[in-house]
């Protein structure tokens, strides 16, 4: 992966950030710009679906409804957008927990455990089985693209600095460079809100130091 973010990667950042913020007006513009930049319909759908795990079903469903309207409006204007690939079907007898545990370990670089998961083991199962098993197994997006969407959303959520810092590390463990993370912050500053960029920049400085 090159140090600079390509057009599709840059376009994904405001889509995820405005989804997490629930800013439908700005999301509408970001979705149009994402399609214009070459993101496929299914790639954007995949971002919006994944983000329910980070910012909740209400924001995810609202964003998907917004995207449906954007696609219909573009079709009415005669714009033909690329549908894109669909996810490869999961194999028979798929074990979400086993696969998710393996995926999470590969993403993070080590097996994840700790007092929080001992205190609430159910959340550990849901993270491993559903997020890292069922969702991250879907091959519409690469893991680096999924992490880019994740850090974009987390930067836009007040109080999620600890998770953002952790996902900076996961991003770097999955092909995103520190230079690209700096470019990510620059896109937030240009396309999103100053407070989102400032939050991302401060947490990135902590991570890199």
Automatic annotation (TrEMBL):
Carboxymuconolactone decarboxylase-like domain sequence ranges: 3-65, 126-205
Pfam family, one: CMD
Any GO molecular function: peroxiredoxin activity
Entry-linked PANTHER family: 4-CARBOXYMUCONOLACTONE DECARBOXYLASE FAMILY PROTEIN, CARBOXYMUCONOLACTONE DECARBOXYLASE-LIKE DOMAIN-CONTAINING PROTEIN
Name of the molecule in the record: 4-carboxymuconolactone decarboxylase
Organism from which the protein derives: Kluyvera genomosp. 3
């Amino acid at each position: 992966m090159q140090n600079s973010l390509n057009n599709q990667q840059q376009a994904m950042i405001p889509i995820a950030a405005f989804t997490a913020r629930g800013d439908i007006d700005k999301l509408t513009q970001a979705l149009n710009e994402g399609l214009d930049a070459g993101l496929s319909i299914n790639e954007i759908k995949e971002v919006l679906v994944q983000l329910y795990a980070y910012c909740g079903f209400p924001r995810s469903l609202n964003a998907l409804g917004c995207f449906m309207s954007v696609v219909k409006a573009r079709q009415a204007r005669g714009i033909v957008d690329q549908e894109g690939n669909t996810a490869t079907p999961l194999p028979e007898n798929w074990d979400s927990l086993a696969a998710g545990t393996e995926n999470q370990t590969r993403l993070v670089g080590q097996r994840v455990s700790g007092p929080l998961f001992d205190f609430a083991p159910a959340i550990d199962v849901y993270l491993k089985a559903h997020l890292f098993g069922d969702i991250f197994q879907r091959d519409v997006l690469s893991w680096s693209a999924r992490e880019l969407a994740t850090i974009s959303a987390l930067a836009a959520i007040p109080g999620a600095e600890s998770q953002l810092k952790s996902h900076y590390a996961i991003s770097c463990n999955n092909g995103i460079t520190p230079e690209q993370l700096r470019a990510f912050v620059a896109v937030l500053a240009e396309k999103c809100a100053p407070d989102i960029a400032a939050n991302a920049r401060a947490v990135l400085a902590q991570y890199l130091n």
